[in-house]
Amino acid sequence: MKKLFALILAILMVASLAACSGDTETETADTNDTTAEELIMGTNAYFPPYEYYDADGTTIVGIDAEIAQAVADKLGMKLTIKDMDFDSLLTAVQTGSVDIVFAGLTVTEERQQAVDFTVTYATGIQVIIVPNDSDIASVDDLAGKTIGVQAGTTGDIYCTGDYGQDSVKQFQNGALAVAALQNGQVDCVVIDNEPAKSFVEANEGLKILDTEYITEDYAAAISKDNADLTTKVNNAMEELKADGTIDAIIAKYIKAE
Ligand code: ARG
């Protein structure tokens, strides 16, 4: 019995070495090692399938959490995830209270003034959620409506720019914006397409309009003072893209239609 166990263990070890295709850091990295350097990720965990609390309500899971874990593993670092308001994430990375932001975060020129972005890993589309019986049928019908958004997101920035502050109601997260839509406090919600799908699935009587407001790229953000970490994370992410890890993580959470 002991021999069999040893044999299985040996096979598993060889298999895992093979899977790591030459990256020696990965094998030596021990994420339970308390001396391992910490990688603190900031996010706002109400953004499924990118980040959300799993059924037990304590663990943050999702595409970003898994990509960050894979990056940390490659760098031999121990990942810690901090949940905070979306609109405080960039300040948190600038001031060093977190090392990296993974939050379905859209690359914009304005944000690039404040932080450095890693390579991109996903595409987001700003879409419009409305009640099934809404008279809003396309982007052209948004004028004069009350639009719910998550504060500080690109949905917020674009809608405020296009329709004015008075037309836009900010919420601390997407779930609260969708709840306000259910209550009739807002006429629609503008938010990224994948969270939109999750929210519509979880709430009766809502639909996503078949028109795209804007398409954008997601990347992680790191302080401009931490160029060394940006280089390391970019190298890790390029490897994880090349070996299919990132695609596999995304496919696990987003089923092809
Ligand atoms: N992609 C949008 C942005 O960057 C929304 C991201 C919201 N993310 C979150 N984890 N709540 O502004």
Brief characterization of the structure:
This protein has 257 residues and is of the alpha/beta class.
Strand residue percentage: 15-25%
Overall average residue pLDDT: 89
Chemical compounds bound to the protein: arginine
Number of helices: 10
Uncertain parts: 1-5, 7-30
The percentage helix is: 40-55%
How many strand segments? 12
Radius of gyration from the CA trace?
20 Å
Q: What is the CA–CA distance across the termini?
A: 46 Å
What's the order of the H and E elements? HHEEEEHEHEHEEHEHEHEEHH
Largest sheet report: 9 strands, mixed
Name the structural class: alpha/beta
In one word, what is the shape?
globular
Which secondary structure elements does this structure contain, and how are they paired or packed?
Elements: H1 2-19, H2 24-28, E1 38-43, E2 46-47, E3 51-53, E4 60-61, H3 63-75, E5 78-83, H4 89-95, E6 100-101, H5 109-114, E7 116-131, E8 147-150, H6 154-163, E9 168-171, H7 174-182, E10 188-192, H8 193-202, E11 206-208, E12 214-222, H9 227-242, H10 245-253
Helix pairs in contact: 3-9, 3-10
